[in-house]
Structure formats: C-alpha cells, structure tokens
Amino acid sequence: MTAFEIRKFSMREPLPENDDARLKNWPVVYALNGGKKIYVGETLSATSRIRQHQASDSKRDMRLVRLLLHEHFNKSAALDLESHLIRWLAGDGKYEVINRNHGIVDADYHDRETYRGEFPEIFEALREAEIFERSIPGIENSDLFKLSPFKTLTPEQALAVEDLLRALRSSLDSGAEPGSLVIQGDPGTGKTVVAVYLMKLLSDIATVTDEEIAEDLEGDSRFSEFFTSEFREALQDFTIGLVVPQQALRKSIQAVFKRTPQLSKDMVIDPFSLGKSDQHYSLLIVDETHRLNQRANQSSGNRNRDFREINEKLFGNDSPLYTQLDWVRQKSDHQVLLLDAEQSVRPADLSRTTIDVIVSEAKTAGKHVTLASQLRLNAGDEYMPHIRRLLRGEERAPSPVGDYEFCMYSDVSQMYARIRQLDAEHGLARMAAGYAWNWVTKDGAAYDFELDGVKFCWNSTDVDWVNSPNALEEAGSIHTLQGYDLNYAGVIIGPDLRCDPATGQVYFDRSNYFDTKGKENNKKLGIRYSDEDILDYVQNIYRVLLTRGIKGTLIYVCDPHLREYMARYVPEAQAVRPIGPSDRIHDETTEAGFDVRAHDVTDDSTRSAGDGHR
Predict the structure, then answer these.
(1) Rounded Cα gap, residues 32 and 39, in angstroms
(2) What are the residues whose beta carbons fall under 8 Å from the beta carbon of 124, sequence distance 6 or more?
(3) H or E element: which one contains 422?
(4) pLDDT at 177 over 60
C-alpha cells in the first residue's frame, strides 16, 4: 500500500477545513496549474497557503490544485520533492513553470535516500494524472532539463552565486567599479549551471512583486536576503546578457531560455553579435570564457572583416592586441567570467597568458571563486586528475572510479557495440573522436574514416548533435560535444596523439591532425605554433571528450604504444560476443558484424556536443 495520496481541488473554492487534519499542519507538496502554466510549492499548512494563492494576482489563471500528502514526510523531504518536481516539469516541457529561483541547495537530511526512493512512484502517479508527458529518463536526458535554470545548487555553487550577488549589490549601492568576477572549475563542476542560474535569479529579483515575496518566499531560502525592494529597484533597467562562444551550446541554451519565464533567447548571444550590437549591458556573464578569440585568422573572410570592424567601432583602431574579451569589457559595466584554461582547444582561443592574468587579477581583488567538486561524472573526484595524468604520460597507478564504467577496448567494433547497447538501455550514449581524420564526406565520400570494420561519418549537424536522429551512427567532434553531457561516451583517441616507446613521452603527430584552425599559425600576432604548443590543445581536446560521460567512458586508442601505456592504468573491457547469422540486427549499422546485445564487464573496477565539422 502506497504511503502517499494525491488530492485534487478547484482553485475557485477553499480547501475543506475539517476534511483532513494534515491540510492544516503537515508537510505538503502541491501543484497549481491552469492552461499551460504550473507552479509547485511546499508548505506546512496547505489550507493557509492555498488561501493565500487564491487571493493572489499572480496565480489568478490557476484552475486546479493538487496536494501530495505523504504519511511519513518531514519538511526536508517535502523541500527535496518540490525541487525534483520543479526540475522535472521544466525538463518535460508540457507546462511553463512559473516558479521563481529562490535558492534550494542540495542539502542532506535524515534518511534522504529512502525518501528519494519513493519519488519515482510519485512521479508516475502524477504522470497518470497527465501532469507529465515523458518518463524520468526521457526528461533527464534532454537539454531542456540539463540546461534548465531550475537547479538544486550544491553549497559550493550557491556560495559562488552569493559572492556574485553581494559584489554586484555592493557596487550598485556605492557606485564603485566591481571588476570582473571569475569562476574557475574543471569540466563537470557546474560552471554553465551557475551561469544559467544567475540569469534566471537576477531576472527574478528584478521583476518579483511584493505580493510574490510575501506569498512564496520562505525566510530561510538561500537567496532570500537579495529579494528586497532596494535591490529590485537597483536592478530596474539593468540589462543582462549571456555570452556563449560555442554555436551548438548557445543554440541549446537559447531554446531553454525561450521557454523560461523572465528569460528570452535574445539574452543569449555570440561574441560577434555582441560586438556589432549598439546595446550596452549592465552585466555580461560569459560561459566558456577560454573559448573567446584573440586576434587570429577567423573561419571566413567575413569573420575577419567583422573582427576588424568591431575593433574599429569599439576602440577606434584594429590593434592585433584586442580580443573578444576586450569587447565584453567594453560592452558591459560588470562581468562574470566562467573559465577553465585546460578546455582551450584551438590556438585562436584566448592565450594561456591572458587567462592567467584574468585569474591573477581576480584573486588579488578577492573576486575569484573555484568550483572544485565533480558533479557530472559518477566516477569520483580522482577521475579528473587521473585523466589529466594519463594524457600527459604521467600516470603511474590505476585510479578508483567506483561503479563508473571505465574501460579500454582493443577493437572499435566491440566498443561501438557496447555504446549501442548502452544507448538502448539509458539513452545518450555516443561515439566521439579527436579530429584525427579528414572530413571527406563533404566531397561526396561515403564515410570519413574506418576502424576495425566500422565506418564513421563526422557529426552531420553542429546544433544539438547529441539529440539528432543520426547521432548514434556518427562520431562527434570536440566542437560539437564541448559543454554537453552524455550518459556514456565511447572515445576514440586518434593517431594525432602518440607515445614514444623508448622515452614514454606522449607527443603530437601533426600529420594525423586535420583541424586546420587547430594548428594554424597566427600571422596577425606573428606566432608560429610548434608541435609542443599544439600538443597542449590536443590533450585538452581529449580531456574534454573523456569527461562527457556521466555514467561511463569507454576508450579506444589508435597508436599501439599509447594503447600499451594506457592499458596499464585503464581496465580492459571484456570482448563482446560475435554475432551469428540468426541474431544479426537488421539495419545498416550491423555491417561491421557485431552484436549490440551481448556484453558483460566482469572487472569490479569497471562495473556499473559549435563550430564543428559542418
């Protein structure tokens, strides 16, 4: 027998006073909906809170109230479920979630896992009531969920948001220049989460009404101190923009903002549009700041012309020393820069020297925050340093990864078979590769490269490739995958990265690297890039690709000496059973001759998506 029930009432009538004592004094989660809008809340007195909503102008369009009553809920469990429902609803997309971002932090509480174990059953009951359209896995695999501003922040992320808000408020109160706040972190530490959350939170503070504050805002909410009339007044006519250099990620965030109250897709811009615009921003938040360009040969003649004209417009001359970061500073009063120098993947990106200066100045001014906790991967905090050492040839021992599926294959067809099986079971399992093969399908070739009988084409789209219809049949590049999450990644380390068997040194093979812009000298600045210089970018590329998979990362290494070195520290995957004529999968993807249904990893340590090619 379930421990919860869902009761439905009209928003036009008061809740029955004597119907159930729990309506007056019990932790309750509720949902109000009308038309295409929905609001989720929690309260200790449903009768009082719903009466308050019924008198509210902001909830006048609501028609129904659903109360979720649970026999064993406490306040913490109700808050946790409220947070989950808001995030699932935002990711589902059936309704427009009109909640404000008040700052729910991912706090632990007594017996949390037991309560959370009941959330899927509650979800399915609400799905039967047609509150949700998709399943939990379907929702959580979507960009609408992953990039939603309705997030439960970690304490570390919440602290970063608080630091920004306090610095901003102080600057607005005093009229002083705040400088740039820098938020630094490895892949998977939640930099993009912070950027998107900030956009929503500042928009909410600027537009919230006194009635909503009295009605919805709990005094112990993490950011309640900022929901004041004084700060709201200071944020009137305060223009905010989110600069995202990568095309694929930018398009995905724009799609999320288009569906989020108080946000607009026009708030998400690329550096060139920023430079050309006549608008000046009060605040610019820059995601992936390291991917901003310095003066270099751009991807087209038009872009080279744009770079020159923007420099002349903003500074009066086209000095080769101006970068897109200078555009950001010139076009805004305040900046929040989110960055990770080890995710720079092309020489045209901001130089390491420039990034080091940014970080140093922010630290000196007390405006630097580090996000250290790994959130994307289920492999633990040791995984990232392990990958870094592996790619540099500096690893000397295996690293624990818990239940994370982390293993190495000696046959690409076997790894591809496993990826297809994982995609069938979990979704979002994709193949990825370094740019170690030319893009020849643009000239009419049937495929771009072949390994162990498997023919691969590069990603057929730059925008939202991970969710595109052909993604499972293709290999994604760094320019398509950077900034995206997968459940599982099958990463091919191409012959652009090799190992010298005599010295053990990892080195770059220029003859097997086909990203023209990835190795192009900078004539504008008079810089020639050596193999050692490009090696850093290639290692960064593989570091990013090897940190896309939330639940697992599978590796195939082309260079035999590099494979031999890595095999000492990465568990070997058990071979997939060869298929027979009777159980061949009947579609074009089985031409390589493998069985996508048979796979068993027995080693305990291995249990368990911009400017791309197109």
Answers:
(1) 5
(2) none
(3) helix 412-426
(4) yes
DSSP 8-state symbol, 244:
-
DSSP symbols for 14-58 = PPPTTS-GGGTSS-EEEEEEETTEEEEEEES-HHHHHHHHHT-GG
pLDDT at 604: 30
> Which of 285, 358, 282 is closest to 349 using CA atoms?
358
Task: Please determine, for residue 592, whether its predicted confidence score (pLDDT) is greater than 60.
Answer: no
Q: What digits encode the pLDDT tens for the residues 518-575?
A: 999 999 999 999 999 999 999 999 999 999 999 999 999 999 999 999 999 999 997 6
CATH architecture group of domain 155-371: 3-Layer(aba) Sandwich (3.40)
Phi first, then psi: what are they for 25, rounded to 5°? -155, 75
Q: How far is CA 153 from CA 193, 535, 581, in A?
A: 8, 35, 51
Same fold, 155-371 and 383-606: yes
Secondary structure of 468-497 as H, E, C letters: CCCHHHEEECHHHHCCCCEEEEEEEECCCE
Task: Write out pLDDT tens, residues 480-512.
Answer: 999 899 999 999 999 999 999 999 999 999 999
By 3-state DSSP, what share of the chain in percent is helix, strand and coil, each rounded to 5? 40, 20, 40
d(CA 276, CA 426): 43
CA distance 254 to 167: 27
Residue type, 108: D
The whole-angstrom separation of Cα 309 and Cα 303 is 10
Q: At what angle do helices 191-207 and 155-174 cross, to 10 degrees?
A: 50
Query: Where are the chain's structural domains?
Result: 4-140, 155-371, 383-606
Spatial separation of the C-alpha atoms in residues 551 and 545, rounded to whole Å: 14
| Cα gap 289→245, rounded to integer Å | 8
Other Cβ atoms less than 10 A from the Cβ of 201: the count is 23
Q: Which residues contact 392 (CB under 8 A, 6 or more apart)?
A: 506, 539
User: For the purposes of burial, counting CB atoms within 10 Å of the CB of 580, is it exposed (0-12), middle (13-18) or buried (19 or more)?
Assistant: exposed
383-606 topology per CATH: Rossmann fold (3.40.50)
How many Å apart are CA 322 and CA 271, to the nearest integer? 13
What's the pTM value of the predicted model, to 2 decimals? 0.89
